[in-house]
Amino acid sequence: MDQFFLNFSIPSSTVSFQHGDQLVLTGSCFSDEISTKLRNAGHSVYSNPHGTIFHPSVLAFNLMDCLNEQPDTRIFERDGRFYTWNASTLISASSEQALQEKLMAVKTELRNRLSNAKLLIVTFGTAWGYELNETNEIVANCHKMPAQHFTKFLSSPYELVQDWILAIEQLRSINPEIHIVFTVSPVRHSKDGLVENNLSKARLLEAVHQLVLEENTSYFPSYELVIDVLRDYRFFKEDRVHPTEEAINFVWKQFEATYCTHATTDLNRSVEKVNKLAQHQPTRQEETHLELISSRKAALSEKNPEIYWEQAE
User: Fold this and answer.
1) Which entry of 77, 233, 243, 265 is 20 to 30 Å from 226 by CA?
2) What is the mean pLDDT of residues 168-193?
3) Architecture of domain 22-260
4) Does residue 313 have a pLDDT over 50?
5) CA 187, 10, 220, 5: dihedral to nearest 10 degrees?
């Protein structure tokens, strides 16, 4: 036997994206990793405006919530800072009014982005969630508040699907053509326990495969690529939980092959080379190095004005 892994091919998607298309990503920290790859390849990306969020129902709620103009009613204060149960600790302020203004700006930007997006890429992290005992509502983050304020629970696939069917319906009202890519994070939630993590991932996978029966949706198997194809701890960081950069690169290349044309992939490589040059310490005089980067950006942009440079000159 000369093969030491299972064959696993991902069919090309019926939808593709190119430079200039608007892309929105939301979900677990794996969404952040892929958004970084997309930005580095010159794509316009709006990622996790509410911070990293792991539970699918919270993701669905935040997407639906951005479609209205109502102020946030779930703000609270801790140690002189104001937070919301709908977002991570990324979003906070020194006063309730300042936080409301910040949250409204996020809602407006997210709604505008979704209205024009070609793809919405959603990464489910865990089916385990926490309810605030005071209201019996799920929270995006416990914000280091005492554990007795919360009750931990495990969502069923049915509950997750119902929340997302409603979210999809509302998203279609502002952008009928948006294509939604669902994926499940390969990051292990080991703090829940390995058995509990596997139970959670099984529920996420079941929910996702029901959701992709909806029109203009698809499933990208990032979970299977890491857990079943790579399936080796050398592809995880020292915590044995998060994939290494090598593993993320492998998934990114598979994502490109699924949703990008050959022309887009070639342009990705060209943009990445320029960005890599910009990240390196210059071996020549600083001014000459910056001029070289600027000239290469200009040459690429002249032929491809739709390229988005993360740090424009």
Assistant:
1) 265
2) 95
3) 3-Layer(aba) Sandwich (3.40)
4) no
5) -10
